[in-house]
Predict the 3D structure of the following.
Amino acid sequence: MLGLQSISSSDLGSALTGHGIITVDESALGQIEAGADRVLEEVGIRFEDDPEKTLDLWREHGGIIKGDRVFLEGSRLRQIIRGSAPQSFVLRGRNPDRDTGIGAGQPAAIAPIYGAPNVLLPNGRRAAGSLEIYRRLVSMAHAAPAISNTGHMICVLNDVAEADRPMEMALAHLTLSDKPFMGTIASPEAAEQVIDAVSMAVGREPKAGECELLHLINATPPLTYKENPLKCLRAIAQRRQACMVTSYMMMGATSPVTGAGTLIQGYAEVLAGLALAQLWSPGAPVVMGLFGIPFDMRSMLPCYGDPASHLVQIYAVQLARRLGVPVRGEGGVTSAKMDDGQAGSEGARATAASLLSGADFILHGAGWLEQGRSVSIGKFKREAKAIAESCGFGTDQSALPLPFDPRLEADLRRRLRG
């Protein structure tokens, strides 16, 4: 199995500077790259339901097309990525003082949980996510000094029509915070609508190396990209906004059971997505995400908190460093159903592994519970406070956001109603 070199320090404050303090065997990284190259050449990647665009683009750049499967050369993909993908970029907020650098030695950016349908309230009661709760969570994220990005879909807006959710979430982030946040991938059209709104709210001229939104673009392991992520990737990259191209694998279910096999498969998947973003728009900002969770064959659930995930995280960071792009880390993920000792222990280990390995953007940094099916308000507050204290942010709340232009808010709400 892949081996770790000794860790020289456990100071999270030093790790947060973006350099990390965990290193790995370079020869093992070379083996992972070689294995991924073989997967790309012999098995290929499926790109579903976008033949007129994605498949034609791959054909122009040397891909071998069989149906919706594309066989690619790994070394060529790395050349494309290294040739134009930026090593760092800046996410801009409404308040220029809160602009956040991503990558190349910048401090790690931390965002809260993403995608929880349910909420564990402070009184111990579970509730479906709602717009009212969402606005409360955004305010909490703004107030927390350790959370530099207020995220996206902190909980699902179950009381809002699905078509209206992207703009309602954007309005919550814009009116209750002036920090950067993440964009929607509900559809290419929704992504562009939110990009337009946030660009107007930020109100600054486009600038090379800077953008307003980071979007989560997921592969579907094993070795597949679905139609909507592909179309969102194209639309977002062409608008010069950032894409966090991620392979999120369940080890033994959607990827090999071993850490090495999971790293090989995931690296092949993200190489294809990252290169595709650069082919659509050379120089478009990207973040690489590669994470594996052991899958329990008894419960048929992923085992968040298992140390095997931390090993995958550590190697993922080093693979991204070799590639020359910023890299995602996982925050307080846990399988615990309650905000208890298990939740605290598993979440803290996951966050520490990301910080110590040198991840640039840490998602799920606060609030994750129950395999991501719930956001815990208590855990959110506790984790945000713990990160602030451990990493030298202090415990004072962030200053209140700058006022949001009421005329722009009224205009955006008219568009929402329309």
